[in-house]
Amino acid sequence: MSHVALLGDSIFDNARYVPGGPAVIEQVRRGLPAAWAATLVAVDGHTVEDIATQLPRVPAGATHLVVSIGGNDALGASGLLQERAGTVGAALAVLAETLGEFRAAYTAMLRAVRALGKPTAVCTVYDAVPMIGPSERAALAGFNDVITRAAAAAGVPLIDLRAVCTAEVDFSPMSPIEPSRVGGAKIADAICRLVTGHDFTKPGCTVYV
Prior knowledge:
The protein contains 6 helices and 6 strands. It is an alpha/beta fold.
């Protein structure tokens, strides 16, 4: 039996933000062929470094892994935007330092996930969230650049959630940084299309939307 495990944060673990459901994991299960199974390993609030605590909970029978992580890392770094800087260059230097730390952590995380020896895909962080402004979106682009480059270097496929969740209705009214039922359905569809249609024997960073 084919079996996909979802690792990461509340982009996958969104049940509390869609009262009455369906959550992303339920939508994935509905969208997969009958012979497939799906397990939620992701935990709301987790960061890149927390993925290490999720790996032991990946089912031994899992055949595919999809990771969506980084949004909380970016959220945690958002305070940088309120710091004073003498020049634009100085401000960018501060951001570059944070992105360097994120790059190291994300690269190590992806290496640990791939060490499980299972076909793996990763996701960018969506940026059409109603509550964020232009400066936050510009900073988030740096985090997504790290994720995209890491996927390319590892030769794993990428789900670009920036092109998946693009409308206000895609985000939960309970918490606008979380996917709604509508957004969750789009995310689940992208996951199902990737794991059932991608040829993981051919390395390369194919982008799914």
